[in-house]
Amino acid sequence: MALLEIKELTVNYYTLTGVVNAVDKVSLNVEKGEWISVVGESGSGKSTMAYAIIGLVPPPGRIAGGQILLEGRELTSLPPKEMRMVRGRDIGMVFQDPMTSLDPLRRIGHQVAEVLVEHGVAEWDDALEKAKEMLRRVGIPEDRADYYPHQLSGGQRQRVAIAIAMVLRPKLLIADEPTTALDVIVQDTIMDLMEEFKKEGTSIMLITHDLALASERSDRIAVMYAGRLVELGPVDDVVEGSAHPYTQMLLRSVPDLWGPKDIKSIPGFPPDLRNPPSGCRFHPRCPYATSKCSREDPPMVRVGPLHYAACHYAGKLGEEGGG
Ligand code: ATP
Ligand code: SF4
Hints:
Blueprint: E1 4-15, E2 18-30, E3 35-39, H1 46-53, E4 61-70, E5 73-74, H2 80-89, E6 91-94, H3 108-118, H4 124-137, H5 154-166, E7 172-176, H6 184-199, E8 203-208, H7 211-217, E9 220-225, E10 228-234, H8 235-240, H9 245-252, H10 255-258, H11 291-295, E11 301-304, E12 307-309
The structure holds adenosine-5'-triphosphate and iron/sulfur cluster.
């Protein structure tokens, strides 16, 4: 059984100017001990999907359909109190800005210890000792347990956020753009830390707009476009043999992967999800689009043993040119 099964998940934001269909019937599994990266341009629905998994879609958003199963247990219908227990114990989450999860007015050791106390794992004295151990584990010397967040660098703050997310050793760590605000060297050390937890058995879901970063560490890559999952597969299949035109164009826009000479940005803009394009949502920007593409939703089809793409011409482009 997969650790996490997302089935036909739909999440909408009910705004005054219309319904934003941020996630549209996304189905995705996270296996035990794997690192899966969810990539896509800004606004593709990556963060909304992550918030849905931890039961924190911000208003005016709401899960409008589908299921999220953690080891077979349906999360979308759990009462808020039980969902609070799932967060931290079963699923940890780290955000782009560690200050979202850190309290600027409280010492970092207390913030880590609080998770243990809240979940009934330890009393304060014991929890503070365990918090120091956890801080050491993530590379923060224990004599800094009394520091406030502002006394630490951005990279150290993110380490503390990881300590808070991981102190109960959840089965899944969701990291939403955890290194976007950090310089490249610090970025790498944070990724190393996440990889260590993965080796200890934690599944990782990295959410990033950075395909180069995703391709370095992941077992599988899931590509989202305009609220839909458009390609999914082992990292080598997706990076070297991408079957969806959007992924192919995304790859060509990454200098580290394609070489600096041939970088091509994707023409046009992602659609307004209050009124998404009919059929394949990528059709207004796709060089291979046909009239079928604007009429019919492309199903997710298998293009390799573990490799899937949602394109009417997946695996055929280049042979038939998309007809
Ligand atoms: P980013 O990397 O910029 O966060 P993303 O891929 O994570 O992008 P989301 O933030 O999930 O994408 O956004 C998906 C869609 O939902 C976008 O069209 C966005 O404008 C919309 N959206 C996100 N939050 C809200 C909100 N609170 N109210 C209304 N619409 C929202
Ligand atoms: Fe392009 Fe059509 Fe494939 Fe969509 S279904 S990616 S528009 S060829």
